[in-house]
Amino acid sequence: MTADRLDRTFFSRDTLAVARDLLGKRLVRLLAEGQRLSGIIVETEAYVGETDRACHAARGRTPRNAVMYEKAGLAYVYLIYGIHHCLNAVTEQEGFPAAVLIRALEPQEGLAKMREFRSGQPDRILTSGPGRLCQALAIDRTFNGSDLCISPDLYVEEGDAPAGIVTDTRIGISADETARERLWRFCVAGNLYVSRPPRNRGTKVE
DNA sequence: TATACGATCACCT
DNA sequence: GGTGATCGTATAC
User: Strand C: which nucleotides have any atom within 7 A of a protein Cβ?
Assistant: First the structure.
């Protein structure tokens, strides 16, 4: 059950590689009372640098996106639509703004607590979506800038690479066509907890 | 200071 | 398939 935590060398690589390789890994959240919540990462998206028009850093550094410019392995958590939180892992070298958005998990530990945080929503959508998984794991902006390589209560553990990976366009972005066409969304093939079925634009088997 | 809007979700028809 | 919620942030005035 206890596995090694992913270290900074893992996150310091090319963002697309990190997004792909995070599939199958375990996101762990330890609550104050010591309870462990976790889920296998089954869907991610890559946001890469100021030239990526869909990236929050597309218009340069601001107070909100500053964490994206810091060292790999930090958590970038922001509030969207005034309601939901989204969790990202910062990637690449310090000074280059890039991150991987964690979009869905397959719940593993602490299901009862997650159901409580999710107000009794069906298990099927317990952690299926970036806002939902943050609610299920009690992740909010207080984690923005926290270090996934060091933090005692939020980190990623080693896990088995999935048998199949499917790529697709990123969800919910309203940037230019080039950004919309990029296949920078990564999903575990056939997994029930992926937030929206991939349209099978690109298929990879690893 | 004012305003428009977003890497979403739940609930409605 | 459509839409309102809700507020921090970026940008314009």
Answer: 5-11
